[in-house]
Amino acid sequence: MPAIVLVGAQWGDEGKGKATDVLGSRVEAVVKFNGGNNAGHTVVVGDEKYALHLLPSGILTAGVTPVIGNGVVIDPSVLFQEIEGLTARGVDCSKLLVSASAHLIAPYHRTVDRVTERFLGVRRIGTTGRGIGPAYADKVNRIGLRVQDLFDEKILAQKVEGALETRNQLLVKVYNRRAITVDEIVDELLSYADRLRPMVCDTGLELTRMLDAGKTVLYEGGQATMLDIDHGTYPFVTSSNATAGGACTGSGTPPNRIDRIVGVAKAYITRVGEGPFPTELLDDVGEGLRRAGGEFGTTTGRPRRTGWYDALIARYASRVNGLTDLVLTKLDVLTGYERIPVCTAYEVDGVKHTEIPLTQTDFHHAVPVYEEFEGWTEDISGAREFSDLPKAAQDYVLALEELSGVRISAVGVGPDRDQIVVRTDLLEG
Ligand code: GDP
Ligand code: IMO
Ligand code: MG
Predict the structure, then answer these.
(1) Residues of each annotated binding site for Mg(2+)
(2) Domain made up of 3-98+201-262: CATH architecture
């Protein structure tokens, strides 16, 4: 099973990092194909807790080749901070490969991200403020800076000058900020060039060679289906393709090489930032889920909004990504609830919907229709086989499988590497 794509099936933070980590040394390379340091993956290994942002989670497994693909936007200061932090903790980062075509986040992208949000006021997106949107905007606008530009000082200066021409007008005249000089940007970016050079290659070519040699490559998505620029709740989305198609465009791997597409979903659902969220719980129950699940952002520390599992979103994620498997995480967090509601339909202005509504306006007005399932009180964190789970927990998983239209191949019962119930092997089954 050589090429396997792993994506978020909800609004992010489903436990993708842990799911990647669980596959460990059974994969030879882990590729990040979209987003940047807006991602936050917490991986727990025994007493050690790691928070990864720009580096793929596979870096924690010795021997795995971590790859940052062309679809990623790289903030070089963050890249080296993260490498230094991990190296100091004994993690080997020497095998990291970085695409020459990945775009760079420059300091002015961060500035523009933050001031834009401030000016949007109530219409803000609630971004992570990392400069992700402005860096992708420059890419699409064809005024972006790429990793390879760091190795040609003249070209770099020309490109920075071009990018700053309009940016400075905006910063000074609209946002009342100081103009940024070409030299300050070029000097900062060039200071990373020598350290970056040994990692840079044609990552698409390297990945094709690995696949040709029969190696197993995991494409690890950042963000999630409902945050995808095309398929998510636009404009309350991130600026990249977080769905399975993004794994191909963001890495240079053709679609016909992909063998398996794994979605990751929590046994309930969360969202950080603004935007519609039909099953959101704004009461004490929501607060209880936030506490029980430790639902605070890995990147920004913001409290995550919480709600019940939404089967329409799961079905949508299954369809848009072509999911072959679902990893259901955080089932343990639901322990102790007498009844567990699951959203099986929406009502919009008196009309029942069993698919995601056509328009954002309708999605904003969607009122969830719930089916309730029996809860359980037993501690399930030690379960390793499906049969170890109490009958009600098994029934809940089987109900979600049926409602989501995709087989649930693994169930998370705690944050640690080994706290997982595997029903179908993600690489072999
Ligand atoms: P990611 O962005 O998709 O990688 O997810 P995050 O790391 O942002 O958030 C998931 C959180 O849930 C992390 O703190 C994980 O350690 C934790 N986690 C993952 N799987 C499980 C699970 O099955 N049970 C519990 N209790 N925590 C989990
Ligand atoms: P992982 O990979 C959850 C959200 C932000 C905001 C919107 C746009 O850990 O699942 P951006 O900074 O990307 O322009 O913000 O997207 N967002 C995430 N939410 N998990 C993430 O990543 C996210 N990355 C971005 O909160 O609503
Ligand atoms: Mg996260």
Answers:
(1) 13, 40
(2) 3-Layer(aba) Sandwich (3.40)
Backbone conformation region of residue 157, classed left if phi is above 0, alpha if psi is from -120 to 50, else beta? alpha
CATH of 103-194, one of 3.30.2310.20, 1.10.300.10, 1.20.58.480, 1.25.40.10: 1.10.300.10
Which mutation among 16, 37, 73, 127 tests ligand 2's pocket best, with the greatest number of atoms within 8 A of CB?
127
139 is catalytic: yes
> What distance in angstroms lies between residue 251's CA and the mean position of ligand 1's atoms?
25
Contacts of 257 (CB under 8 A, 6+ apart): 2, 3, 208, 211
User: Tens of pLDDT along 87-120?
Assistant: 999 999 999 999 999 999 999 999 999 999 999 9
Atom of ligand 1 nearest to the CA of 224: 3
Residue 353 bears catalytic tag:
no
Residue 202 is which amino acid?
D
Instruction: Please determine, for residue 356, whether its predicted confidence score (pLDDT) is greater than 80.
Output: yes
What is the pTM (predicted TM-score) of this model? 0.97
Q: How far is the CA of 423 from the centre of ligand 1 (A)?
A: 19
